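Worked problem 6 (solution included).
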Amino acid sequence: MLITHDTRCALDTVVDLVNTAPEDDTAADGLPDVPALERFVREHEISDVGALSELDLSAVRRVRERFARIFAAPDARTAAGLINELVAAAGTTPRLTDHDGYDWHVHYFAPGASVADHLAADCGMALAFFVVAGERERLRRCEAPDCRRAFVDLSRNRSRRYCDSRTCGNRLHVAAYRARRREAAS
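Solution. The predicted structure is:
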């Protein structure tokens, strides 16, 4: 599957956005305030965003929840319906642009759109490309029992199981090894 630079950036952004949500009632929100949202926008180089407010923060959190539902969708039809609703609500307006030294690419948000609509449109379309390509199963949650972080499996054979093999994957492999050693010693 060919993934363009702007689609890859949108995928990274949507994954990072979904992963800012607290995993349970005891975890902290990764977007606790407007300065955190400003950092998120800056770190992900989200263009055409003006001054941000509490209203923007609330709207982005709602969009984040809608993206989380897409990652949790049981099948392509459900994911497609959720993506269609999200993108339609954002008022998409595809347009070609070559800003900030990047080659020509498509922005799907309307000029002057809120940051929430910007994320919904561009990131929603990136996820839509995966559904269209028959690759929705690549939108995953980490299989580690104590981690439910989102990720996009871009491995050649669709075999990635953990959000990060160095942390979650390695931790589970070490635990399984120790369990086997304990069992063998018994």
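Discussion: Residues 165-185 form the longest helix (21 residues).
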